[in-house]
Amino acid sequence: MARFIFITGGVVSSLGKGLASAALGSLLQARGFTVRLRKLDPYLNVDPGTMSPFEHGEVFVTDDGAETDLDLGHYERFTGVPACKTDSVSSGRIYSDVLEKERKGDYLGKTIQVIPHVTNEIKDFIRIGEDDVDFMLCEIGGTVGDIEGLPFFEAIRQFSHDKPRGQCIFMHLTLLPYLAASGELKTKPTQHSVKELQSIGIAPDILVCRSEQPIPEKEREKIALFCNVRKEAVVPAYDLKSIYEAPLAYHREGLDQAVLDAFNISPAPRPDLGIWQDVADRIHHTEGEINVAIVGKYTQLEDAYKSIKEALTHGGMANRVKVNVDWVDAEVFDTEDPAPHLEGFHAILVPGGFGERGTEGKIKAAEFARTRKIPYLGICLGMQMAVIEAARNLARMEDAGSEEFDFEAGKKRFTPVVYHLKEWVQGNHTVSRKVTDDKGGTMRLGAYDAVLKDDSKVAEIYGTTRIEERHRHRYEVDLRFQKALEEKGLIFSGMSPDGRLPEIVEVEDHPWYIGVQFHPELKSKPFAPHPLFADFVRAAVDVSRLV
Ligand code: GLN
What we know:
The chain is of the alpha/beta class. Helix content is about 35%, strand content about 25%. The strands form six sheets. A nine-stranded mixed sheet has the order 13-12-14-15-25-24-23-20-21, with helices on both faces. Helix 12 crosses helix 19 and helix 14 crosses helix 15 (about 380-395).
C-alpha cells in the first residue's frame, strides 16, 4: 500500500508547490520507488477546461482526455509518469458527484453535509489506485486558511488519522520574506501559517521554506523549534536559474532524505541522479542561442503557454542551445504588416487558442514564416491558421475562414476550410457532437493515433509512421480542400487512422513548416525532448547560423 505525502502551502500563493511536489516525486524515483502525483483544487469549476488561460494558465490534457491543472504538466515532465483523469479533482467535481448521488438516492434519508459526505468523497478520490505505487503525492491547491480549501484540509487530516501511524506525512511550503531595511529574513509568517494548519489538526512533518536569501542556521533552528518540526526537516528552497535544477537542489538541501526519515525508511536507498545531472549540464553548457516568437493571444500570462515554453526549452537542451522566447501579441498586427514585429526571429510558433480575436494576425504570421522561409510550428489553432493562410494566398480562396469565427462574427459569407467537428471515431465507437452541446468536456480530447505519410518530413522527424498525440479541439480542417491545397504545396502528411481527420500539414518547398492538430508540447520532457520541438529548434539553429 502506498505511503502518502500531502503537500500544502501557506503565506502566499505561487510558491512553487507544484514544482516542489514534482521534484520530490522525481527524487523518490531516483531512489528506486514508484510514484503518482495528484492535484486537489478547491475551486468550483468542475475542471479547468472552461477557465480562461489568462486567469488560470494552460489547461493540461491527459491521455485519457481529462482537462486538468497545469501542475499535472510539471508532474509529468519531472517523473515521466503519464497523468490520468484520477490525478486531478476540484471542489466542483466533488460537489457535483455528491449531488448526483443525492439525486439518485444513494444517501436516502440522510442530511448531506460537508462532513462526512464531501470529505468522504475526497478521501475516496485520494484512495484510488493506492495499491499501485510506493508513494502517492497529493498537492492541495490554494493556501491554508482559504475558505474553499477547508474540506480538503479536513479530508487529508481524517485520511491520515484513518491510516496506520507512519503511513502519511504532511509537507508545507512557506515563504521567508527578506526585509532589506533590517537585512533580515522573517520567520513570523511561516510560524503563523503553521499555526493555522495546526488549528485544523494538521502538524507538518516537513517545511519547505522559499527564500531569496540564504537561511542562516540560527533561523532554521528557530523555525524548527517554533513550528515543531525537526531541524533537518526545515528545507530551504532558493530561486534557481532553471526549474530543472530543482531535483538536484532539493536533494542537496536534504528534502528526499527528510521525507524518508519522516517515514522511518532506513537504510535509505542511494539515489541515482544521473538524468538530472545530464539535464543540468545541458542547461549550463550551451553553444549558442536562438530567438523564437510565440505569436498568440494570451501573451500577458506566460503560464497560458506553459507546456510550449517548456517543450521549447527541452528542444534547446536536445541541441545544446539556449532558447529565448518572445511573446508577440497577434492582435497588434491584425490589420498591419507583421514584418516589423517578426523580423529577426529564428523561428515562429503559433500556439493553440480559442475565438476569433487575434486570428488575422496569426494568419499573417503564418504567411510571413512561409514566404520568408522561417521555421514555423503551428499547434492546433496554429495549424488551422496555416491552412486558412494557404487557402487564401496559395489556393486563391480569398474568403477562406473557420466556422469557429464566423459563428461569432454573425455568419458572414465565407468558405469554411475549418469546420465544426460533429463526429469522430474513438477506439471502436463513434463520438457525436452538436453545435448546441455544453462547452465543458465536449471537445475531441486526449490521445488519438495518427498515421504519417511515408516520405513526409514529419515521418522523418518522428522516425515512424504511426504516432499517438494528445488533442483538444472542437474544429477541424476540412478534407474536401486537401486536393486544392496539396496542388499548391501544402501537404496533408498526417491523418487519423480512418483517413477522415487531417492531423498534420507541411509545406513542401520550405525548410521547416509544420502544422499539427494535436498538442505535442504536452508529452515533451527535459530528459526526452519531443522530436518535433527538438527538430524545430534544430531548424532555428540553422537559420541563426545563416544570419
Ligand atoms: N479553437 C480551435 C478548435 O477548437 C483550436 C483549439 C486549440 O488550439 N486547442 O479546434
